Amino acid sequence: QLRKVMAYSSTANLGWMILVLQYNPSLTILTLIVYLFMATAAFLSLRANKATTLNSLATSGIKAPVLAAILPLALLSMGGLPPLTGFLPKWLILQELVKQGLPILATLVALTTLLSLYFYLRLTYVMALTTSPNNLTATLPWRLNPQYTSTALSSSLVISLLLLPLAPTMKTLVC
């Protein structure tokens, strides 16, 4: 069930926010805003693909190839990989923890992120490298008019992927 994975993701990101709340509340707000954009992008993409299980996620490339190409990037952004937006709040939180004299806690938190990243990589693997055993003989759905066009979906996907270049500006506004 994808809901369980997304619930775990929400809990893990809430842990990051609670961890830094006592040291830098404005950084917590920035983390919350970035996470809301990333979660909105992921949830709207899953809803547009009508994906509820890993098997239905594997067929999303047939239904909507563009979303199937962008959703793994949004998921990896939630995992905090460096070239994507999700890396920014995690990096700033780690810097704040080290600045507060808590390098062991920062290391422990960074290592626990690897567990979240495993789940996101697993979803990405299912979407990109596996195909569900379906026999499609009809017209492929992606050639028809799309039913999922949404301004919220497209803007949240762009923000969740490409906000990292604005990191210095956001850091000066927050810190």
Description:
74% of the residues lie in helices and 0% in strands. With 175 residues, it is mainly α. It has one domain (2-132, 141-174). Helix 2 (25-49) runs antiparallel to helix 5 (65-79). The chain is globular. The termini are far apart. The model has no long low-confidence stretch (mean pLDDT 80). GO terms for molecular function: NADH dehydrogenase (ubiquinone) activity.
Notable characteristics:
175 residues; mainly alpha; 9 helices
What general form does the structure show? globular
Assign the structural class, choosing from mainly alpha, mainly beta, alpha/beta, alpha+beta, or little secondary structure.
Answer: mainly alpha
**How many separate domains?**
1
Classify the beta-strand content into a percent band.
under 5%
Low-confidence stretches: none
Which sheet architecture does the biggest sheet show?
A: none
Residue-averaged pLDDT = 80
Any idea what the radius of gyration is?
A: 17 Å
Spatial separation of the terminal alpha carbons? 38 Å
Write down how many β-strands occur, each being a DSSP E stretch of 2 or more residues. Answer: 0
**Helix and strand pattern:** HHHHHHHHH
Number of helices: 9
Give the proportion of residues in helices.
over 70%
Membrane topology: Multi-pass membrane protein
EC number: 7.1.1.2
GO biological process, one term: mitochondrial electron transport, NADH to ubiquinone
Enzyme class: translocase
